[in-house]
Structure formats: structure tokens, C-alpha cells
Write a structure and sequence with these properties.
Blueprint: E1 11-16, H1 27-36, E2 39-44, H2 49-61, E3 66-70, H3 85-92, E4 97-106, H4 114-131, E5 135-140, H5 143-153, E6 160-162, H6 169-177, E7 181-184, H7 195-200, E8 209-211, H8 237-248, H9 252-267
Parallel strand pairs: 1-2, 2-3, 3-4, 4-5, 5-6, 6-7, 7-8
The structure holds zinc ion (ZN).
Zinc ion is lined by residues 102, 138, 163-164.
């Protein structure tokens, strides 16, 4: 029997939207399939207060495999008011919540106004300072303003990851200089959109690299055979690993090992 050669090295998906309704009918099977390919731990992303609560409840249900983040995605910034902050703070302070976010700025679609996004971002950065927990960051088409706001808080924050990084070589170098970890998704598997990312991924120091699926979004485009569904799942994380290894001319075993160590260093999990 032929097993994948990274079989002995487990993988951690640091960004999985498992509370998404596309998983409502088969959430448990999705977890089982992930475990069957040695994706042994998954960090469930909170994108608003309700989904953060749902992510926490999943983490309570599967304490060996799952942890949660608590935060409000920039798309939902318009729904976050001062009245919601006590509830968000309570979630952040839960032991199974290991990061604040996802939070940040997304000027690609501006579902919330830039002003609303900036306010929500600052509130969550303050929660990260207060709680001592790292931040799980989202940035798209907002690099300059994102850097400017984040820089005000970064010295007081325990750690940070730019999740689903899709930017340029210059941007990744700047984030690394700021001390950020960089999360790479299946975007890198896209031969049309992923070209600049394939160059940027080579610039990430080994001790700052993290891997994630961002499922159900961003299914790797180079899967063989191609799955019938376009829904991404944590079981496809090895395809992200493989592409990163190819781009960096490093072995899959090595990438698996360093990304696990980096996850442990940033989130103090898994212990
Ligand atoms: Zn995101």
C-alpha cells in the first residue's frame, strides 16, 4: 500500500470557516475527511459575533481538534457597534478562543464603508492588546491604511498573522518586517491569479509561514481529479502544502513541520 510520504507529519489548518452554512449537512464528515489525511487540528474562524459564538461551540464539541477565533470580518463592520463589544470581549476571553479576528480592512468590495471598517478594526486591536491574544488579520486592497492602523497597536500585541495573504513581494516583505506571520491558502494553486503570490511565498522566512484552506472558499484549482463540488474542505490542505513546497523548492515534510511549529509558537496551540 502506498501512503503519502508526509503521512507522519500532521498538518494544521489555521483558517477554516466551519460555521458556514454550506457545511450544515455534513460538518462531522468534513472533519473526519480532514483527519483521514492527517489534517489533525483546525482553527475555526469567527466572522461576526454570532459566527464566533458558533465557532466556540464547535471548539467545545471537538476540544482535541478545534479552537476558535472571535471577531468581526471587515465586510460585517457595519453591524458592529459599541453595544456589541461586551459580548465580543466575553468571547475573546474564552479559553478555547485563541485569536482575535478575523479583523482588518477589505476595500475590494467595501460591503462596509472604510470608516466603519477602520473603527471595527481598532476596537478589535484593542481587544487583542487587552486579552494578550494574537490577531487573525484580513487585508485586501487596503495595504497602506492597514499598515498604518496596525502599527499603532502592534508593539502591544502578542502576535499577528496576515491570513490569506494574496499580495506582492514588496507587501510580504513589509509584513515580515513588522513581525507578522503569513497565512497561505489555495490561492497559490491558481495558475491565473496566483503568479505574484508564487513569487512572494519564496520571501517568507521559514519561521513565519502558516497554511490554511479558508474553506469553503478558495478550493485549490490544481486538484486531480477535480472534485464535483466547488466547496473547499480542510481535506485539501495537503494540496496547498504541496504547491508551497514546489514554489519554495523545499520538501513537503519540511513545510509541514515548520508550519506546525509556527502555529504552536503564535497561538500556543496545539500544546
Ligand atoms: Zn479573510
Amino acid at each position: 500500500m502506498c501512503l503519502p510520504f508526509f503521512r507522519n507529519t500532521s498538518l494544521i489548518d489555521i483558517g477554516l470557516n466551519l460555521t458556514h452554512d454550506s457545511f450544515d449537512h455534513d460538518r462531522f464528515e468534513v472533519l473526519q475527511r480532514a483527519l483521514s489525511v492527517d489534517v489533525t487540528h483546525m482553527l475555526i474562524t469567527g466572522s461576526d459575533v454570532a459566527h464566533s459564538r458558533a465557532a466556540l461551540s464547535l471548539a467545545h464539541q471537538f476540544p482535541e481538534q478545534l479552537r476558535a477565533t472571535a471577531g468581526v470580518h471587515p465586510h460585517h463592520a457595519k453591524d458592529l457597534s459599541t453595544a456589541d463589544l461586551p459580548a465580543l470581549r466575553a468571547l475573546v476571553n474564552e479559553p478555547s478562543v485563541i485569536a482575535v479576528g478575523e479583523c482588518g480592512l477589505d476595500y475590494f468590495r467595501n460591503f462596509s464603508s472604510p470608516e466603519q471598517q477602520e473603527q471595527a478594526f481598532r476596537w478589535q486591536l484593542e481587544l487583542a492588546v487587552e486579552s494578550g491574544k494574537p490577531v487573525f488579520l484580513h487585508e485586501r486592497d487596503a495595504h497602506e491604511q492597514f499598515v498604518s492602523i496596525l502599527s499603532d497597536y502592534l508593539p502591544s500585541i502578542s502576535g499577528a498573522v496576515a491570513h490569506c495573504f494574496t499580495g506582492t513581494v514588496d507587501q510580504v516583505k513589509r509584513y515580515v518586517d513588522m513581525g507578522l506571520y503569513i497565512g497561505i491558502t489555495g490561492w497559490i494553486c491558481d495558475e491565473r491569479r496566483g503568479q505574484s503570490l508564487r513569487e512572494a511565498v519564496r520571501e517568507i522566512p521559514a519561521d513565519r509561514l502558516l497554511i490554511e484552506t479558508d474553506a469553503p472558499y478558495l478550493i485549490p484549482r490544481d486538484l486531480h481529479p477535480k472534485p464535483k463540488s466547488h466547496r473547499n474542505e480542510p481535506m485539501y490542505l495537503p494540496a496547498v502544502l504541496k504547491r508551497i513546497a514546489t514554489c519554495r523548492e523545499e520538501s513537503e515534510v519540511y513545510i509541514a513541520e515548520i508550519t506546525t511549529l509556527n502555529t504552536q509558537r503564535l497561538f500556543h496551540w496545539p500544546q
